[in-house]
Design a protein that fits this description.
Arc Repressor Mutant, subunit A
């Protein structure tokens, strides 16, 4: 009986090539993936059809969860063809666990539309970052930690409202660290879809400032340098209005929490840009052109315009 079990496990492993195993692992790490995401992440945009066939081959029959991945149609309010979205199945998670990678399968019944859109836009941004460094050899992406991973052992900071101390988890959508010629550009990245009102945005921003100022950020991520980058997404002009509003809220929170002589330094830690829902339309501009805004300054800057600011006490 034990021999039969070992044999079945061996056969399951053999049914996946190293390339297939890498794809299954990547889908598990990113949670939700489309063929276009893999084409940017791993190769070039013209290979979407190739990755569509590859992803489909890893799914079960008739899109059941019997494969290493499962798929479902991207929700849309527009008529026309919709892209397939791929996620890790229980079988895929089992195979990865045998290889020492423990990633949870995602259950479709837990899925909300807003969570899915947010996750897909995060996937698009991350794949755009990989495309950028692959096509610009002077840059590398040396570290990448996503919220799904960070949430398992989250960075925390202790707040002290009046007489009580409250530990609060501070989990960005992603932590990325770019490198260029000896310079490092660590980034706490956030996707914003306009679902947070002023109170919640300011509360989260205060927690992040305490997290940065307390030294908890530098200890957790092992670097004193940081940019906090927010990308608003959606249609014009709403996303531009949201970007301007978030910049104003950030100025108000910094004025509230930071002494006057240090305010400009703290403002320069923050970057804001607005992106279309199809982030790949901005692949070239996102990291190369001045599309990022610093609160309180009139002109946009490029993402890597200057060395990443160091945290101030």
């Amino acid at each position: 009986m034990a021999t039969d079990t070992v044999s079945k496990k061996a056969q399951s492993k053999l049914s996946l090539s190293p390339r297939d195993l890498m794809i299954v692992r990547l889908v598990g790490l990113l949670r939700f993936v489309r063929a276009i995401d893999l084409s940017y992440r791993l190769a070039r945009p013209t290979l979407v059809s190739y990755y569509r066939r590859l992803l489909a081959s890893l799914c079960g029959p008739e899109d059941s969860q019997g494969g290493f991945l499962y798929r479902f149609a991207e929700p849309s309010i527009r008529k026309g063809e919709r892209a397939w979205i791929y996620a890790l199945s229980a079988k895929g998670a089992h195979i990865l666990a045998q290889e020492g990678t423990h990633l949870p399968p995602y259950k479709l019944r837990q899925l909300s539309y807003n969570y899915l859109r947010h996750s897909l836009q995060l996937t698009s941004f991350l794949c755009t970052a990989h495309f950028f460094v692959r096509t610009n050899p002077s840059y590398t992406l040396s570290r990448e930690m996503l919220s799904y991973e960070l949430a398992r052992h989250p960075p925390t900071v202790t707040l002290q409202p009046e007489e009580h101390t409250t530990p609060v988890a501070v989990v960005p959508d992603a932590f990325l660290c770019f490198e260029r010629g000896g310079e490092t550009f660590p980034v706490l990245f956030e996707i914003d879809r306009g679902t947070e009102f002023q109170h919640k945005f300011k509360k989260n921003l205060r927690n992040r400032i305490v997290f940065l100022r307390s030294g908890a950020y530098a200890r957790y991520f092992q670097t004193p340098a940081v940019l906090v980058a927010y990308a608003t997404t959606g249609a014009l002009p709403e996303r531009e209005t949201r970007r301007l509003t978030m910049q104003q809220w950030t100025l108000e929170v910094i004025d509230e929490m930071i002494t006057k002589e240090h305010r400009q330094g703290w403002r320069e830690l923050f970057r804001f840009c607005s992106l279309p829902d199809t982030i790949y339309d901005q692949t070239t501009a996102l990291f190369s052109e001045p599309v990022w805004h610093i609160p309180g300054l009139p002109d946009p800057v490029a993402f890597f315009d200057s060395p990443t600011p160091q945290l101030q006490e």
